Amino acid sequence: MEEHLPVLVVLVPMLAAPLCLLLRHRTAVTGFAIAVAWLTFAISVLLLLRVLDQGVISYELGGWPPPWGIEYRIDLLNAFVLILVAGIGAIVATWSPASISVELPRYERHYLFYTAYLLCLTGLLGITATGDLFNVFVFLEISALSSYVLISMGQDRRALTSAYQYLIMGTLGATFILIGIGLLYIMTGTLNMADMAVQLEGVRDTRTVLVAFGFFVVGISVKMALFPLHLWLPNAYAYAPSVVTAFLAATATKVSVYILLRFFFTVFGHEFAFGSMRLWVFLMPLALIGIVTASLVAIFQNNIKRMLAYSSVAQIGYMVLGISFASVNGLTGGIVHLFNHGLMKCALFLAMGCIVMRCGSVHIDEMRGLGRRMPWTMAAFVAAGLSLIGVPLTVGFISKWYLVLAALEQGLWPVAALVLLSSLLAAVYVWRVVEVAYFHEPRAVDGEGAITDAPLSLLLPMWALVIAIFYFGISTEATAGIARMAAESLLGTSP
Amino acid sequence: MKRQSIPRVAAKLLIPYILLYAFYVQWHGDYGPGGGFQAGVIFAAGVILYAIVFDLRACQRALSPRIIHLLMPLGLLLYIGVGVAAMLKGGTFLNYSVLEHDPVHGQHLGILLVELGVGTTVAGVMISIFYSFGETVRS
Amino acid sequence: MADVLGLYNYWVVIVLMMTGFYIVVARDNLIKKIIGLSIFQTSVFLLFITVGKVEGGTAPILAEGFDVYSNPLPGVLILTAIVVGVATTAVALGLVVRINEEYGTIEEGEIHVQDVEA
Predict the structure, then answer these.
(1) Per-residue model confidence (pLDDT) at position A440
(2) Which of C86, C101, C102 to mutate to test the interface with B (most CBs of B within 10 A)?
(3) Which of A224, A388, A487, C90 is deepest in the core (most CB within 10 A)?
(4) What is the pLDDT of residue A495?
(5) C-alpha atoms less than 13 angstroms from C-alpha of C20 in its C-beta half-sphere
(6) Does the ipTM exceed 0.90?
(7) Neighbors of chain C with 3 or more C-beta pairs under 8 Å
């Protein structure tokens, strides 16, 4: 069974999704979906251990050797992102039953929710595991279509228009990616990423390849919500059900960043992207503008989910900033921030989900005095918020450390200063919520309408993430060590 | 529309041939143009023509929505089942050559089963989309 | 000159691509945006398929007496992409039906006005 692990990590949720569709009973589907999500996480952990042991794993689908067949190629970067996606999928699935019983009122339709959830998980895992460019496009669309459906299940009618806007922008992005893949196929004759790196040797400077590169990068920037192509994200995250926001915020954009890493470093090689194309001239300013403007806009939001959504746009800026340094420290910072931000944002949105479940709204005025009424939930929010700011002992500090180190290494003092300034901006918007929750009087409703803390089934997964935030912030060999090894192999400075 | 004789008679004459053509396209995909997706769409087109001419309720009496909702996951499970069977018989996922005693027969069986799964799911999905849109328009 | 005219498939792709993209951006009606998206995707499919043709090659199905075949791979890639496009159109139309139920309109300007007022 061990040699089938690369395909099993995608196959298990893919097999479970139609089974959920057949199995209509609500409790059975919930239990089944949670079990499948944890099984997928276990497979991804086994896969990472295998890659740490044996190096790159290659799996041929259909028995056809690459480059004729589709190949699933797992190396350290892959396995790292797989663990993030599968882990978030499992934790959010465990968290989901109590939340969707409040937010999705039609109980007989819950099996459809879990089907779409498992399909989205399949798509995201498939993008990460595969080594074939067209397979990336297919799984990208699978995950995108199921996320449009999941987002549209929100209670507010604006969830529908947000899902529609995301659909139009997302499909345009995916079609741009398809154009890029097509033009590259025309020039190299192959779709396998490792083989394309070899075939690109002679044709790297032709206009077709440059245009293909441009189309692909713009397409993936739409999916990644890089400023200024981030316009779909705030609405989609604010109006979707809390479960969906927690899942997508921690995984969908990160997987798109992973695709960008693969495309820049594995297919094209960093000398092309950052040497002759000088992509950092274009990526670094956009990343910095995105960080600063998104953090500024987040400060003025009254809907807390929208505030966290703008904060996500800013954090994507950090990841792209790390990539644009194209150095070992920069890439380590970008890759480890991918993991850390997944943990932080998921914990924050899970806290929001608990608040929605008890208070019915995420407007900042509704959160007065919640520090006293819902102590465990708000404590989780504060902990994840500290990590967002980048306080030492939390994972957020680790990523900012590597980014500042990479900036200083290249002599870019203004960039390091901007990274620290944006941490102050994050402190402002986190403090807004903390001030309202802890230093204002709660609404004077007692007895029947009193707000109590969230139930245990919601608190436990959330606190598992908070503990992970502190654990990986203190003992960094696991995350930062793997990220550094992945960065070195991407830059070609290690075997 | 069933009171107008031209669409009614034309549909009655054409629908059997449309469905038959769908089955032809389904099974002849390995040595000619065709395959699962095209066949599924043609099959669904035949059923939808019936629903348009003879009213959605009559069509739903013939092909109940429950059966259609059952067809969708079954096709996908057939596809994945073929892949898993190949894994259980010792090959990698979707390696058709190990399904039978020799690779040529294995490839033949594998592709036919996989395309059947695709055709079933596609037909189920197309008809189901039409059913759900048709029901909202009425209500 | 003959080269430019011989590459007419790329000109068709460009015209369709720009038409589709313009419709998505410039038109307010939600259904028209979906149509524009569909035209945009179709242009990309044409790009893929037309480059698969090998001069003097026949259809990529094994037959007696032929030894030059067109490339079969773009065809099957586009089949997958067409299915993806159909699924996207179906989800989009489902969303538009629901938006019509909730807002009573499918013009983006009117929806925006209703949202701002809320």
Answers:
(1) 81
(2) C86
(3) A487
(4) 42
(5) 23
(6) yes
(7) A, B
Nearest-CB residue to B92 (from A15, A22, A61): A61
Query: Does B70 contact chain A (CB < 8 Å)?
Result: yes
**Range of A474's domain?**
278-495
Range of the domain at C75: 2-117
Q: How many domains are contained in chain A?
A: 1
**A336 located within any domain:** yes
CA Rg, chain B, in Å?
18
With a cut of 80, say whether residue A321 has pLDDT above it. Answer: yes
User: Which residues are bridge partners to C107 per DSSP?
Assistant: C29
Q: How far apart are CA B29 and CA A205, in angstroms?
A: 40
User: Which of A87, A129, A7, A315 is CA-nearest to residue B86?
Assistant: A7
Q: What are phi and psi of C58, to 5 degrees?
A: -95, 180
Is residue A257 within 8 A of residue A321, CB to CB? The reply is no
At which residue do the structure tokens 């313009």 appear?
A: C22
Q: Is the pTM of this model over 0.90?
A: yes
Comparing alpha-carbon positions, the chain C residue that sits nearest to B33 is C61
Please tell me if residue A148 touches chain C, with a CB cutoff of 8 Å.
yes
- The CATH number linked to C108 is 1.10.287.3510
Question: Do the chains contact at A15 and B73, CB–CB below 8 Å?
Answer: no
Size of chain C, expressed as the number of residues it contains: 118
Question: Following DSSP, what letter does each residue of A256-316 receive, concatenated?
Answer: HHHHHHIIIIIII-HIIIIIIS-THHHHHHHHHHHHHHHHHHHHT-SBHHHHHHHHHHHHH
Using CB atoms, list chains with 3+ pairs below 8 Å to chain A.
B, C
User: Does C93 contact B133 at a Cβ distance shorter than 8 Å?
Assistant: yes
CA distance B96 to chain A (A): 7
Closest among A292, A283, A280 to A420, alpha carbons compared: A292
Chain A residues whose beta carbon lies within 8 Å of the beta carbon of residue C48: 182, 185
Q: How far is CA B100 from the centre of its chain?
A: 25
Q: Which of C30, C47, C84 sits opposite A164 (nearest CB)?
A: C30
**Is the CB of C97 inside 8 Å of chain A's CB atoms?**
no
Residue with tokens 């590259």: A184
Q: Is A198 inside any structural domain?
A: no
pLDDT digits (tens, 9 = 90+) for A213-259: 999 999 999 999 998 899 999 999 999 999 999 999 999 999 999 99
Domain count, chain C: 1
Quickly list DSSP for A400-427.
HHHHHHHHHHTT-HHHHHHHHHHHHHHH
- Rounded CA-CA distance C37/A168 in Å is 7
Q: Is B49 exposed, middle or buried (0-12, 13-18, 19+ CB in 10 A)?
A: middle
Residue A297 and residue C84: Cα distance in Å, rounded? 35
Residues 6+ apart with CB under 8 A from A149: A116, A163, C91
Asked whether C33 and C20 are in contact (CB, 8 A), the reply is no
Assess whether pLDDT exceeds 60 at residue A494.
no
Q: Does the CB of C35 have a partner CB in chain A at under 8 Å?
A: no
**B92–A63 C-beta distance less than 8 A:** yes
Contact C61 B33 (CB under 8 A): yes
- Asked whether C44 and C62 are in contact (CB, 8 A), the reply is no
CA A59 to chain centre: 25
Torsion of CA A7, A13, A14, A18, to 10 degrees: 150
